User: What shape does this take?
Amino acid sequence: NLAAVQRLPVIFVIQNNQVALGTRVEQVHLPGTFDELHEAYGCAGWAFDGNNVLDAYAATHLAAEHCRAGRGPVVLSAETFRMGGHATHDEQEARKVLPAELFARWGRRDPIGLYEEYLKLEGVAVSELDAIEAGVTAEVDRAGEEALASREGNMPPPETAVQGVYA
Assistant: This one.
């Protein structure tokens, strides 16, 4: 609300993943989508396919242009699905609450797989995609190793934990 009143250049992304803990969205929020939520705040907004990389890019690009033009905030609603639990304690809960067909349908709409198929149709060679994946995997692995190694020599002294903290 404040962002709309102040016409701040902010993009809010609502991830409608169909379930909140063990409760289906349509049980607590009618009609089950967030497509019109922006209207409650008096700002621009629209929905997009949260499993489509190109839709996500286009929606974000348009929202950024809107904000950069000084027209205030944008609320984007990404329609997607959470394939696992909200946290480790409810991993199986969603599987009990939601029908198996829903998991099967959304499983076929994996964003990475959809984009990979799009790139293949656009002429990108499978070998090139494999090379990109290998490079990204190696980069992530290196970053993980660096992060774990950094805690050995870069941990702050325990007595600094309360410095600069309001009490």
Observations:
- Strands lie at 11-16, 19-20, 23-24, 44-49, 74-79.
- The chain has a mean pLDDT of 88.
- The CA atoms of residues 113 and 163 lie 47 Å apart.
- The longest strand covers residues 11-16.
